[in-house]
Amino acid sequence: MGHECIDASKEFKWSEDVKVKSEVTEIVLVRHGETTWNAAGRIQGQIESELNEVGQKQAVAIAERLGKEERPIAVYSSDLKRAKDTALKIAETCFCSEVTEVPELKERHVGSLQGLYWKEGAEKEPEAYSAFFSSQNDLEIPGGGESFDQLCERSMHALEQIAKKHKGERVIVVTHGGVLRAIYLRITQASSAGKLLNASVNVVHFRDEKWIIDSWSDVSHLSSVGFLQRGFDGDSKA
């Protein structure tokens, strides 16, 4: 019988059968499966959209992969449906009885760009489009959107809370392309995060208040179901 996932709203207590292997917390970050809007090139932000047929197959494929690896003590997810649906598949395969929703792990609110197609963003909402790709990290996107700094702050805080709650354990977190980009750039201080692919596996370690990227953008498990080559790229207008 596998360990049950932990409800983040409850105080964490060690169960007798849980043993700390090390001081390192391993967090497997997963981007949700492909959606109808991903395939259409439409900007989702915090608007709900469904996994399409490919995305559903991707969710199964990633669940099968993670089910063969070390069993996680918990599965967490953004509260947006595309992430939750992906997380539920993973939890089922990894013998976790529930998925704990973390609203702070939802996608970035991109203001008036939400609902538009990427190809029309620059023409219909030039200020918002420019703000999204701006190197000025404290610039909020017009139309109620977040700045990159705001996205980073909430994403990293949520991730750190999870890491501290599960010291020395392995957990899975299902989230979004924008959040993954923010996490990668904050940890590495790199100038670009590259493409963040649907249903990719991205592993980070937390120890002594420090983050380390263990592996990034692994989609080897998707060879039979495929994935969008363009992925999410918040670093380039191309």
Automatic annotation (TrEMBL):
<dbReference type="InterPro" id="IPR050275">
    <property type="entry name" value="PGM_Phosphatase"/>
</dbReference>
<feature type="active site" description="Proton donor/acceptor">
    <location>
        <position position="107"/>
    </location>
</feature>
<feature type="binding site">
    <location>
        <begin position="31"/>
        <end position="38"/>
    </location>
    <ligand>
        <name>substrate</name>
    </ligand>
</feature>
<comment type="similarity">
    <text>Belongs to the phosphoglycerate mutase family.</text>
</comment>
<dbReference type="Pfam" id="PF00300">
    <property type="entry name" value="His_Phos_1"/>
</dbReference>
<feature type="binding site">
    <location>
        <position position="82"/>
    </location>
    <ligand>
        <name>substrate</name>
    </ligand>
</feature>
<dbReference type="InterPro" id="IPR013078">
    <property type="entry name" value="His_Pase_superF_clade-1"/>
</dbReference>
<dbReference type="GO" id="GO:0005829">
    <property type="term" value="C:cytosol"/>
</dbReference>
<dbReference type="InterPro" id="IPR001345">
    <property type="entry name" value="PG/BPGM_mutase_AS"/>
</dbReference>
<feature type="active site" description="Tele-phosphohistidine intermediate">
    <location>
        <position position="32"/>
    </location>
</feature>
<dbReference type="InterPro" id="IPR029033">
    <property type="entry name" value="His_PPase_superfam"/>
</dbReference>
<dbReference type="GO" id="GO:0016791">
    <property type="term" value="F:phosphatase activity"/>
</dbReference>
<protein>
    <recommendedName>
        <fullName>Phosphoglycerate mutase</fullName>
    </recommendedName>
</protein>
